[in-house]
Amino acid sequence: MRTLFHIPLCAFCRKVRLALGEKKLDVRLEVEQVWRRREEFFEINPAGKVPVLIDLNQKVISDSYAITEYLDEAYPEPSLLGREIYGRAETRRLVAWFDDKFNTEVTKTIVFEKTLKRFFSPGGPDSNALRAGKAALEGHLDYICWLADRRNWLAGDEFTLADIAAAAHLSTVDFIGHVPWDKFPEAKQWYTRVKSRPGFRTLLADQMPGVLVAAHYADLDF
What we know:
The chain is of the alpha+beta class. 54% of the residues lie in helices and 6% in strands. It folds into two domains: 3-74, Glutaredoxin; 85-204, Glutathione S-transferase Yfyf (Class Pi), Chain A, domain 2, CATH 1.20.1050.10.
C-alpha cells in the first residue's frame, strides 16, 4: 500500500489526495504533525514538510508539484495535465496561480491564521491578515467565475490539475465557512461539480481537532 504523509487542512496535501482519487489509486493516509519536528520524518523528507508520498515501489516523492507530475507520468490515465501542449501549459499556469498567488493571498492569511498558526507560534489570528485574505478571496472568486463562464473546466474542455489545485485551496477555506458562495454563482456551480466527483469524497469526511467544520461543507447540494 502506498502512503501519503499529510495534514488534513493543508491545501497542497489535498491537491495530492484529489489527484490520487482521480487516478483511482489506493493510499494510506498518515497525519504528520510537522510542528513536532519528528526525527523519523526528517529522515524521509529532510525539508520536514508535507505532502510526502511513498509509492508501491517504495520510492519517496515530496512536494505537491513533484508528486502530481510524478503521478501523471507513472499512472497516465486519466491525464490530469492535458493531452496537447498549450493545454498543459495553461494547466500549469493555473496550478501556479493557485499554489503561489492564491496560497499567499488567501490560504495563508485565512486558513493558516484560523487553524494551524496556534501550532507554530503563540497568539491568536492576525485580524489584519484575515481582512486582507477575505478581500483577496473575492478577487480570486471573480477570476474563477470568469474562467468558468468561458470554459467547461478552468483550463479548458477537460478536468485537470488546474481544477484540482483551485478546489484544494478553496476547500480549506470552505471547511471553516469563509467562502461567500452566494455572491459568485459561477464559481459555486464549478465547485459543486468538483465536489461531486468521487475523488473528493475522502476530503468531505475530514476533521481537525479544535476546528469547527462549516455546516454545509460536506453537503453536495449546498
